[in-house]
Amino acid sequence: MGKIKIMIPAFLMCLCYMLNAFYLRQGHINGIYQNTEYSDIWERNCKSTVILIDDAPLSHHAQKKLWQRNNKEIIEKWDPFTKECDSVLFVNNNVGHVEHKEDLDTWITEGAICLNGAVGGCISWDDRLFYVEAGDPTWKDEVSIVSNGFRVHLTFID
Fold first, then answer.
1. What range defines the domain where residue 46 resides?
2. Percent of the chain predicted with pLDDT > 70
3. Is-contact 33 118, C-beta < 8 A?
4. Which of helix, strand or coil describes residue 76?
5. Is residue 11 pLDDT above 90, yes or no?
């Protein structure tokens, strides 16, 4: 009987933690940064918007909710979609050290997101959460909206 008294509260605590970590953890926007660069792929200038998220949600469900809760404000204030090649990247706000000093002069490098030195360091490529881009959604359940005449949808980074 004594083990059950310990196991039930322990189980409930684990359940509450998992519920919080995967579904209730909402995430909050810490900062939004924008840059326009020439894209060799698109052969034109494209706008890149990076959004830093504190307490980033872990589940895809919670990440969808984060986008749904903030997309109007982001689109109205930052106008991130003016061309078909524009995109918005959501990243966990986990600024780390810079491996190469010259990386601070770049927006996004091969392994890090440095935002031209605006945050005083770089964010690891592994801290990417999801991005929003123009085009039709790949999966039926993806969240999509229309912005500036472009259908935009979010894509998860697994």
1. 27-156
2. 89
3. yes
4. helix
5. no
Q: How confident is the model at residue 143 (pLDDT cuts 50, 70, 90)?
A: low
Which residues on adjacent β-strands are paired with residue 150? 147
Residues 6+ apart with CB under 8 A from 29: 51, 52, 53, 54, 70
Q: Is the pLDDT reported for residue 136 higher than 60? A: yes
pTM (two decimals): 0.83
Pairing of strands 87-92, 44-54: parallel
Handedness of CA 110, 112, 116, 117 (dihedral sign): negative
65 occurs within a structural domain: yes
Helix (H, G, I), strand (E, B) or coil at 151: strand
In single-letter form, the type of residue at position 16 comes to C
Cα 84 to chain center, whole Å? 19
Distance between CA atoms of residues 39 and 52, nearest Å: 23
What's the number of domains the chain is made of? 1
Please check whether residue 11 lies inside any domain of the structure: no
Distance of CA 130 to the CA centre of its chain: 4
